[in-house]
Amino acid sequence: MNVHTSSTPRMAGRVCIVTGAASGIGRAIARLLARHGAIVVLADVTTDVIEGGVSTAELIRSEGGAALYVRTDVADAAQVDAMVASAVSAYGPVDVLVNNACIRHARPLLELDEADWQRVLDVNLGGVYRCCRAVVRQMVGQAPRDPADDVRGRIVNLSSQHGLIAAPGDLAYGVSKAGIGYLTRQIAVDYAEQGIVCNAVAPGKIQTGAGGRAVDPEVMARATRRTPWPRLGRPDDVAQAVLFLAGSEASFITGAELMVDGGWMAA
């Protein structure tokens, strides 16, 4: 059994890649992993912070952590491969990949142009595929960090409750998130023998500081009405779930999709 004490951070020295780490949930995940001793590689197309403030890399360093920003469009295989190569060159074997990068273009079927449909799928689902492919290639050749649990690497994908139930008027996003749930299970099964753990976290309504549809009064009212817990989610709620699945405590959990939704899906 691995026992973590206050003098031994649970992610000490672990190399963790977090995509979409500039803002919101990805920023919270990266910060929490760094607080627990991880070296965090931040993969995003920008360093701009939607909710305001200094870049995620600057913030992590100011808090005493280690972070490297690598500009990465997850829709571009060459950029993804280069980002993983940069992480390995700088820090060595990759312990954890967190696939968080995503975009939205909320439209129902008859209002969704094919180019927008393809772009959402290419970033949200294709990006997870490309990052998993690049990282699993690396992980299968690594020695386990802790020989006691035979794990060569861990992947945590961000799916969504809207991959399991309809996201009203938001076809492409829901389809992409449903695909991530399946992809997670398939990778978990296909690479279990090689010591790769793969799980997903499925957030409910999380208040990230984003504007637009995210704070539309109708969307907020529906989310509040549907969530049994007496508040909506925060980025740190998701980050805590990712931290658990990224750590050695979760070695025998693989192929799972963990809801972080305040009870929405249970109601």
Your description of this structure?
The chain has eight helices and seven strands. It has 267 residues and is of the alpha/beta class. It has one domain: Rossmann fold. It has a seven-stranded parallel beta sheet with strand order 3-2-1-4-5-6-7, sandwiched between helices. Strand 5, helix 6 and strand 6 form a beta-alpha-beta unit. Helix 1 packs across helix 8, helix 3 runs parallel beside helix 5 and helix 4 packs parallel to helix 6. The protein is globular. The relative contact order is 0.15. The N terminus is likely disordered.
Q: Which tags fit this structure?
A:
7-stranded parallel sheet, 267 residues, disordered N terminus
CATH uppermost class: Alpha Beta
CATH topology: Rossmann fold
Rounded mean pLDDT is 94
Number of strands: 7
Largest sheet: 7 strands, parallel
What is the fourth-level CATH superfamily? NAD(P)-binding Rossmann-like Domain
Task: Tell me roughly what share of residues is in helical segments.
Answer: 25-40%
Number of helices: 8
Biggest sheet: strand arrangement: 3-2-1-4-5-6-7
Order of helices and strands: EHEHEHEHHEHEHHE
Uncertain runs: 1-5
Task: Find the structural class using helix and strand composition.
Answer: alpha/beta
Strand content: 5-15%
How far apart, in Å, are the first and last alpha carbons? 35 Å
User: Judging from the principal axes of the Cα atoms, what is the shape?
Assistant: globular
- How many domains, as an integer? 1
CATH architecture: 3-Layer(aba) Sandwich
Rg (C-alpha, Å): 18 Å
